[in-house]
Amino acid sequence: MSQELRAVDWTGSGIALIDQTLLPQRTDTLDVQDVDTLVDAIQRLVVRGAPAIGAAGAYGVALALLQGEREGWTDGDVRAAVARIRAARPTAVNLMVCVDRVMTRFDEGLDAVLEEAVAVQREDVAANRAMGVHGADWLLQRVGAGRPLRLLTHCNTGALATAGWGTALGVVRELHTRGLVETVYADETRPLLQGARLTAWELVQEGIPHLVQADAAAAGTILRGEVDAAIVGADRIAANGDTANKVGTVGIALACAYAGIPFLVAAPTTTVDLATATGDDIHIELRAGDEVLEWSGVRTAPAASRGHNPAFDVTPGRLVTGLVTERGVLEVSAGELPGERLK
Predict the structure, then answer these.
(1) Which of these is catalytic: 187, 235, 242, 313?
(2) Which among 95, 193, 213, 244 could disulfide-bond with 236, CB atoms 3.0 to 4.6 Å apart, if both were Cys?
(3) CA 111 from chain center: how many Å?
(4) Is residue 235 among the annotated active site residues?
């Protein structure tokens, strides 16, 4: 894969998004020229992954300004449009953080807003590169296998989910550049298959050996001793280290704890929400029940059945062996808490 792959980019008049709902069958780009389209794209998962959504939100402020100029909006109209972007997905804190950051330059005009949005994207790529190195070094010291590692990951945390390179998958990519990946177990990630469709696609581009497995197979794979470590991303991390990530993550963490292998969370510091004390305070997005009741538009459950479709779950900090950010690794389960170390 080209290291220049960008899930989110500014075109000069709008936002270009790789349409992740179409991968791996098609690689199309959605040209976003208005706020309604951007909000819809975020909610439909055309763009997804906390850092990528953050970058989209940052550029969304510029998009709102341009649309306001075209359509004669008042200042209040533009701010209301930005607020809609900010609230498009409530669990991922990066969206709110990045929009708020860019809004500090709102009164300076479009050029200043774009300058800040570009900085958001540039800094995320640099942070991902740094956490890849930190995470790889920590895993090699912790596991000490003396051979290439067998890794498990959940959902998609690569270049598609970020401004570039990746978080958890960035750690995998760094290990791969050192010749230290034997195989990656990529959980399929029901119900929208971000692992089977997106992570597997990225691993193919990189030439990284991998196996796609059902989410329900993950715990058994770990307990059979076939995994050296699990690496996942995060959408919000509380001050005590509790971590919200794609639904299914907490089961992986429990299996790792039982098996005595590392469970590593990789996320930039923008994902750490020090204003959220514990995972109990994290709002969990409930998506449409049809996502679990249908497949490709065909009903698979009885007509009378209703769907329960939380997009995320919360892993207690005591199960997080390591939290890797661009600053290094916190051993959360050993008492190194984000609220104390990342202030």
Answers:
(1) 235
(2) 244
(3) 28
(4) yes
